[in-house]
Amino acid sequence: MAEGARRGAPPAPRVLVIGVGNALRGDDAAGVEVARRLRARLQEAREGEARGGEVSEFEEARKDRAGAAAPEIEVRELEGETLALLDVWEGADAVVLVDAVRSGAAPGMIHRVDASRKPLPARLRGSSSTHAVGVGEAIELARSLGRLPRRVVLYGLEGAGFDAGAGLSRAVAAAVAPLAEAVLGEARALGSESSAAATAAWP
Amino acid sequence: MSELDRTRTIRTDYLARVEGEGAMYVKLDGREVADVKLRIYEPPRFFEALLRGRAFTEAPDITARICGICPVAYQMSAVRAMEDACGVRIDEGPIRDLRRLIYCGEWIESHSLHVYMLHAPDFLGYPGAVEMARDHREIVEQGLQMKKAGNAVMALVGGREIHPINVRVGGFYRAPTKAQLGTLRDPLQRALQIALETVRWATALPFPEIQRELELLALSDPDPGAYPIDRGRIVSDGGIDIAPAEFDEHVVEEQVEHSNALRARIRERDVYLTGPLARYALCSHALRPLAAAAAREAGLGAVCRNPFRSILVRAVELVQACDEALALIESYEPPDAPAVEVRPRRAVGHGATEAPRGLLYHRYEIDEQGTILDARIVPPTSQNQLAIEQDLRAVVEANLDLPDDRLALRCEQAIRNHDPCISCATHFLTLTVDRG
Fold first, then answer.
1. What percent of chain B is predicted at pLDDT more than 90?
2. Does A151 contact B at CB distance below 8 Å?
3. What is the DSSP string of B9-57?
4. Which residue in chain B is spatially nearest to A167 when comparing CA positions?
């Protein structure tokens, strides 16, 4: 980032992936599991890059850049109280949230909602099972306070069971890896978009 | 008039703005309240089962996940119980101070959330914090700023905001430096100012006049100048004065048909209440001067028995927690070692601390290797369940002429007065009121 600043380019956009959930409540662990999977995936890519092996996503991202430094993708886990999101995503250009949902759809189904400009649909509003304030409410509160990052995309993974002490259901466990890939693709796309926006806005 | 005409049932299947999900059911027969039920669905003892067979050192980390709002309370009751079992006492010095400090952080975080995001909309007439924020942005921002100071304390001392990973049996994995704690001074000073303003603001709220004659039960710290947080004897205004080890002899839990949670009552008598109203009534003498003055200004008196005014007591406790956190930071000198050694032995240990919503009791039986043989956890919400049901009955009886939607809202408020952490006692709690 410092190097970019010396060259007079805009700073690297910050893309945050946040997995929300409780690791010990059945499918409520989905968001946390996706975050862990994604972190391992990014670590592999970094190591691959260090070994000079196949072209990593970071190199791809650098090729993509149009002036701004490569976007940074940061992965966080958030267990428990969701209003902390307002502090966690402070300063981020774009956020991908991953959470378990219970909307009545088939377990393992992946919902994608772009919450950047309009409120979440009601069926996903009370999505999180164990939070006093759901992820949807945290997003809407941030929107009313002007504290929503420029882009927010929510991935909801439909859960089957949320019992304390239980593990992931088979359907949700099977969806973790493909969802992690989808989230990575989304994060990269948001990063490129943010880079382009930052470059366009750079004087 | 037929039986059906005379019976009405008010039900709310989703209870908003409480931790977890709950169901409330009130059945009215004419002007008689025929039935009041707070239903709790979760298999209540799953975490206890999960703990059996695990190492004694794992209890703080596992139990921290029982509640998303009060992980520190679970950790602190767990470490106290394990240290009690192993014959270790940490009653003074920097490790205990750090424990009180992180616990203050959780009180600040949890009370800010409840006062501003969950409880205030009831008084100001909004369905929730999102709608309230559109008209009262300043109020919501203040609450969030104070909450952030609590989060900062938890993140610095606990290693992470919501699921602190730095807490262990015997102390901490790493102790912060004095300079690191110094970074909390400014946010806490600002939070203290907000807390004082919160007391003034809450004093002016409209409160329904309801007095509940319940036995009040809380911890009492042996240091007369310490408000109960992390240790002490269990006392009540009905004459209980016992060590945590005697809790089982005086409090019984019963399974009730409509709820998977266990409902607690005092063996010799019956219903009791734990939480801010109880702490304040039994221990207001131990408030720091600033908090005591705020309570006086708010006109709280020696005892407050109106659950709707619990928001005021929480505001006073916010002053207390911010002020104490600042004092702990000023006097802090890092410990020589961040933890004391705790060697397991075959024993039973008890731990009781004051979660933001009330007394949280843990009991563990471990073997000589430190393997957990048995675990018992009594969260504040299952202790308060009977009191909340009685509050509901009183509120319905006093508001029979309200239309169903407004009566249901009043009932929800009566539940939120106690800040029930339903996921401590349950997972999916759903709330219902019913008028046929």
1. 63
2. no
3. EEEESS-TTSBSB-EEEEEEETTEEEEEEEE--S-TTHHHHHHTTSBGG
4. B50
